[in-house]
From TrEMBL:
This is diguanylate cyclase. GO terms for biological process: cell adhesion involved in single-species biofilm formation; negative regulation of bacterial-type flagellum-dependent cell motility. InterPro entries: Diguanylate_Cyclase, GGDEF_dom, Nucleotide_cyclase, Rev_trsase/Diguanyl_cyclase. The keyword Glycosyltransferase does not apply. GO terms for cellular component: plasma membrane.
């Protein structure tokens, strides 16, 4: 299957899928991990014939569907599709390069032959003694000139066509790259890109200021239970928009998982990270979110936020752990607050 960068089902249909997926996974005693959910989403949506056949076979043979099985299906039938798409784009680019190179060689060959011919005719013109012979040579020159112009025009057309195709391939490549790095719901970076970005930043320099901010929507399950997942999705998207609004251009904003978001803040002090986090928290708390169709208030939505600053010899795991501990302390001490790692013992606001 081609790697998908969009899904054509509405939110309502996706919610129906969710119920079907959960029912199916419970029926076959499959652990509802994110990987397994992704596998069964593709299975239920019937996007992926090869995956569907593989799952049907597992079910028919009553084979166990453990974590390793789900991961293997995901890698083979979902992740692999992205690699296939990259491969096809690379092959198309190479084909265009080869075709253009061939056209250049052919045009150069014809130009060289024309140059030799013109030189030969130039010598003939010097020794012409009658009008008929002059007409013959001039006619030959005119014909060869026309051939050369035709060759040049053909080459120009080929270049224009190649440029158009390359532009289309660039767009396709951009879509594939975006789909591989961006969370579809919020438009933020996805978890995989978050992990890769944080790891790379930590490895680049051992003394570079990096703050990590983890944000979690308070009582988000209650929002979903009371208003439905459509409203929950909209709350997540609105919260994501606030992060984009208040973060600096060099910050990396990601959906960390579920209702949890994250901001990687390179070249940012702890106090600056704290100021940004407070702006986000205050802005969300003061927002008056309502249902579009009924104008019903959704109530006050709040965030608990934990911040950790990079220490010497920090790994991705150790930095995340301290930010997560600060977030947990914010939750534990009343929610709707920002806690920095150095303030955890005092259980105070940053």
């Amino acid at each position: 299957m081609p790697f998908r960068t969009d899904y054509d089902y509405s939110t309502e249909e996706n919610i129906q899928f969710m119920h079907r997926i959960v029912k199916l996974m419970m029926q076959h005693k499959i652990t509802p991990t994110p990987i397994n959910y992704a596998v069964f989403y593709e299975y239920t949506a019937s996007y992926n014939d090869n995956l569907k056949a593989a799952v049907d076979q597992l079910i028919a043979e009553n084979n166990p569907f453990d974590m390793e099985t789900g991961l293997a299906l995901y890698k083979k039938h979902i992740c692999h599709a992205a690699l296939v798409s990259f491969d096809k784009i690379n092959q198309d680019i190479q084909r265009i390069i080869d075709q253009t190179g061939k056209s250049v060689n052919e045009t150069q060959q014809k130009a060289s032959e024309a140059s030799d011919s013109f030189e030969e005719k130039s010598i003939r013109l010097e020794s012409i003694t009658n009008l008929e012979e002059l007409k013959t040579v001039l006619s030959e020159i005119a014909g060869e000139t026309k051939d050369l112009i035709d060759t040049s025009d053909h080459f120009k057309s080929q270049l224009e066509a190649a440029n158009k195709e390359m532009e289309q391939l660039r767009k396709e490549l951009s879509k594939v790259k975006e789909a591989a790095t961006v969370d579809a719901l919020t438009g933020l970076l996805n978890r995989g890109t978050f992990d890769e970005t944080l790891t790379n930043l930590l490895e680049e320099s051992s003394d570079k200021d990096i703050c990590l901010t983890l944000l979690d929507l308070d009582h988000f399950k209650q929002v979903n239970d009371k208003f439905g997942h459509l409203i929950g999705d909209n709350v997540l998207k609105f919260t994501a928009s606030l992060l984009k609004k208040y973060c600096e251009k060099h910050h990396y904003v990601a959906r960390y998982g579920g209702e949890e978001l994250a901001i990687i803040m390179p070249d940012t002090s702890l106090s600056a990270a704290q100021d940004i986090a407070e702006k986000i928290r205050t802005s969300l708390q003061n927002s008056r979110l309502k249902r579009k169709n009924s104008n019903e208030s959704i109530g006050t939505i709040t965030l608990s936020i934990g911040i950790a600053a990079r220490k010497q010899n920090d790994t991705m795991e150790s930095l995340i752990l301290r930010a997560d501990q600060a977030l947990y302390k914010a939750k534990e001490t009343g929610r709707n607050k920002v806690i920095c790692e150095w303030a955890m013992d005092a259980i105070s606001h940053c």
